[in-house]
Amino acid sequence: MKTTIFILLGLVINIINLHSQTVTDYDGNVYNTVTIGNQVWMKENLKVIHYNNGTEIPKATSFSNGIWFSNGALCYYNNDSTSYYDLYGPLYNWLAVNNSQKVCPLGWHVPTQSEWFILSDYLGGGNIAGGKLKETDTIHWHSPNTSADNSSGFTALPGGLLNSYSHNGQFQYVGEMGHFWSSTLVCSTTIWFALLSAFNSRLEIPSYGDECGFSIRCIKDSIININSTNIENIFNIYPNPAFDRIYINNNKIFDFKIQVFDIVGECILEKELNNITNEIDICSFSKGIYIIQLTGNNWTFQHKLTKE
Questions:
Q1: Do the Cβ atoms of 215 and 89 come closer than 8 Å?
Q2: pLDDT tens-digit map of 131-172
Q3: Which of 75, 91, 104, 291 is the most buried (most CB within 10 A)?
């Protein structure tokens, strides 16, 4: 009887969330959402302090050494867990964003650089998109909060950042700027992010070092219908023939796996990939023919590769 009650209660909660357009994270925080073009975004900064498997995200208070540089971690602006947390949420480091245990709720993810650009383009381009994203008024944003009308419904807030390159870390720009992670690497230690300012109307998408602390806005996973007629239009695998490395470009599908098989069918490489540009080192492969197999949720795609 109790099991039946819990199942029914879960269905009721899901129905309520669907009707009210909300999403709930692992810790039970409930977020309002907004549809902008073909994207669905959280209207609030992420607040979760656990990964999706229940593992607690370590909290850092010192930034000259320790867990901030070696683990996924979060911190609170000015190390104040009460004044800032409810409004702005924590500031997360890159290792938390890039953790396989995931920080966003199931069915959601940290946006890619391209998804930030899609948002910017839909709102008229980088020079004016910021004004359409920012919360209005100067209650949280400093004056003049240029061109802020929140016409998108995104309700961006200026949570500032942790600049961990300063001695023992320096918290900066709360009220002046909002910094939001993307999941896209520029190189091994530099990441794209989104930037909004109280002093202009722009949505900028610059890059910065991976040791800083930024806010997170999650975006809902896209539902892609994978079939034999469109799969080759989703993935771009190049060069072919290849010498020392190949690249797999894909801006639609999240969390898939690559396996590479040699001519006798032995799997010689296997790893998890994502929806950005993936670089695969094949320097150790002998010259010859290989089969690349990409596998996701209920789909498999194979591609012949020549190594020269």
A1: yes
A2: 999 999 999 999 999 999 999 999 999 999 998 776 568 999
A3: 91
**Could you report the per-residue pLDDT of 256-268, keeping only the tens digit for each?**
788 898 877 788 9
Cis peptide before 241 (omega within 30 of 0): yes
3-class secondary structure, 278: strand
The neighbour count for residue 149, using CB atoms within 10 Å, is 13
Q: Which long-range contacts (CB under 8 A, 24 or more apart) does 80-85 make?
A: 84/159, 84/174, 85/47
C-alpha–C-alpha distance, residues 121 and 135, integer Å: 19
Instruction: In whole angstroms, give the CA distance from residue 270 to residue 248.
Output: 14
State the virtual CA torsion across 118, 119, 124, 127 in degrees, nearest 10.
Answer: -100
Q: What is the CA radius of gyration of the chain?
A: 21
* C-beta of residue 165 within 8 angstroms of C-beta of residue 64: no
Alpha helices in 61-220 (DSSP H): 85-88, 94-97, 113-122, 126-133
Q: What is the mean pLDDT of residues 51-64?
A: 90
pLDDT confidence of residue 229 = 52
Q: What is the pLDDT of residue 251?
A: 63
Average pLDDT score over residue span 190-197: 94
Does the predicted model carry a pTM greater than 0.85?
no
73-91: b (≥16 Cβ within 10 Å) or e: bbbbbeeeeeebeeebbbb
- Give residue for tokens 């004044």: 83
Where does the chain hold its CATH 2.60.40.3080 domain(s)? 231-307
> Hey, which of 20-29, 72-81, 231-240 has the most confident mean pLDDT?
72-81
Cα separation, 104 vs 91, in Å, equals: 14
Tell me, which fold does domain 231-307 have in CATH? Immunoglobulin-like (2.60.40)
